[in-house]
Amino acid sequence: RPLMFDEFIHKNCQFLFVSATPAPLELELSKENIFHQIMRPTGLLDPLIELKDSDNQVEILFDEAKKVIQRNERVLVTVLTKKLAEELTRYYLELGIKVKYMHSDIDAIERNEIIRGLRSGAFDMLIGINLLREGLDLPEVSLIAIMDADKEGFLRSTTSLIQTMGRAARNVNG
Description:
The chain is 36% helix and 11% strand. With 174 residues, it is an alpha/beta fold. The chain has a domain at 54-168: P-loop containing nucleotide triphosphate hydrolases (Rossmann fold). The longest helix is centred in the middle third of the chain and has 14 residues, at 57-70. The radius of gyration is 18 Å and the shape is elongated.
């Protein structure tokens, strides 16, 4: 029979973990043998992180997004609820931004079409929840806005925030 995970971990003594956000087990097994990569394989440095006042975050994002869109780059926005994703999308549409939302009510095929539309420039901003956190490689995105990042809750852990910010790490201006 194949080994269970715990059996494998205790049987094997050499591992190479590669992660921007290592799990507690990886950190424990690595102990003092942890190396931080300064330069990414893409040759790009980690993206600049700016903290903005949450009191006017919707207006601040609008101003920042306009700058990014003028450079023909894209914007990802994460919010806490489906309703907020939809409402913020409507608001920015009224202000003239080409924007769509994506959340779990949208089926997988339509999600792929939405991602393709963002990459191709059919629209400039994508607002979502946890679907935008990890596993997306979008070099066109240079701005990630995490709305209400100071609020506690699901997807607001250090690891989740780092994963989300990493979506802008594929763009030289990210």
